[in-house]
Amino acid sequence: KQWYQRRVADGYENAARIAVEHLDTIADTYIVDKDNKEPLVKTAMTTLGSKIVNRCGRKFAEMAVDSILSVADLERKDVSFDLIKIECKTGGKLEDSQLVKGVIIDKTMSHSQMPKELNDVKMAILTCAFEPPKPKTKHNINVGSVEDYNKLHAYEQEKFIEMISKIKESGANLAICQWGFDDEANHLCLQNELPAVRWVGGPEIELIAIATGGRIVPRFSELTPDKLGHAGKVREIEFGTTKDRMLVIEDCKNTRAVTLFLRGSNQMIVQEAKRSIWDAMCVIRNLVRDNRIVYGGGSNEISCAIAVSEAADKIPSIEQYAMRAFADALESVPMALAENSGFAPFATLAEVKSRQIKENNPRLGIDCMDNGENDMKVQHVIETLIGKKQQIMLATQLVRMILKIDDVRSPGEEE
Asked: Which pLDDT belongs to residue 111?
């Protein structure tokens, strides 16, 4: 019998609301404390357990937890991902990945003879070009003699020296420029003992400004000492025989800015490591925002299915059938876990479900690792409450959208 879609959608909406409310009743509070990171590390390790980086699970879990706690405001329960940069570099091993309290950029000093390490750095963060000013209108320069060429050369030299002197007068001992500059300007920077970095991307410039407490300067005339960024150390790091080098800005004024530096033997491994650690960071972020958890292994889905089925028995209208279908759909998660673990899916689900009702214990789930223990709290298999709520609500909204579709017409279908 075909039911009116609206009634089915309403039944699903009621079931989703009951399931979400039931999750609040079975949730436990999880301790998020900077002085006790071990519970968070275990949670991150659970997230990374099925990923390609699981052999370095402990290291990556600690990196994810430390990066989130570095930028988290625990009083406001807020995490700013803008202060976390993930930098990838092909080569080396996964074990070579590290968390840097600062910023790493894939650039080097503009001249090979510039110092590779600077201490007590005051940096000018520039988005203006290191070149002589040009008219904004279309123009041509005609050089007809040696004297004209020498005049042009002298003019360029004068402008380059003027720009460098403005940077030096502001007190800066490092220039970071978004644009490039030619060899002549580069040579003059070296002569005037002004280390410089060129072709730094826009997002990296912004992160450097946030980390060092500096201001991005669009014109040389606006450069003042109060707009300089401050860092304890800036150094180049080199990677073995590949001769690849990167720039590390450490001991920044804003100590919350961090960089996750990931290594791997090839591009696929590096990108997979990036996705894996991002998932772990999102889980820790969710715990910082809302430190309530539910237990995994299908335990919360079984508990919600029981609650929705009990509520459906009290509904006299036709929506009760949609609610029971919703409960059956929730049970498909623990059934899939049992099947993938090599157990008899129906028998295993029925056993765990009956134990949950008999013992009134919503923590009982599928023992996928066959440890002889169905209590997911003992096995430390957890999910964030906020994440589980979002999954149920999003799935329900998607079904409601699909039910609003009256008909589907495919290309080439006859009229």
From this structure: 85
